Amino acid sequence: MISYGCTPAEVEALRREAARSAAQVARNRAAREAAALRQVVERVMEGLREAQRRAEEEPQVSDEEQAAQAAAELDAAVQQALMQMGGTPARVQPALGPDGQPLPDNVVAALAQMGGGR
C-alpha cells in the first residue's frame, strides 16, 4: 500500500474519517428521499381529502361515479407528485378479462397471490 509518508495510525484515521463522511452522505441522501416521499404521501392525502370533500358536497352523484372521480383525482395527485419529484408518470392498467372488461378485485387479488395479475 502506498502511504505517502503517513504512519499506519494516520492512514487508519483517514480511513475512519472517509467512512464517517460516506455514512453522513448516505444519511443525508436518505433524509432527502424520505422528505420527498413524505411530500408525495401528503399530496396523495390532500387529493383524497379533496375527493372526499367533493363527494360529500355532491351527494347526487352515484357511488360508481364518485369512485371513478376519486380514483381519477388520486391518480392525478400521484402523477403530479411523481413529476415534481423528477420521476416519470406511472399508469397502472387494470387486469382485463377475455371480454376486455376489468377483472373484479377478488380475482385480481387471487391472481396476485398466484404470481400473476396486474
From TrEMBL:
Residues 50-69 are annotated as: Disordered. It comes from the Bacteria. This is Na+/phosphate symporter. The lineage of its organism: Bacteria, Bacillati, Actinomycetota, Actinomycetes, Kineosporiales.
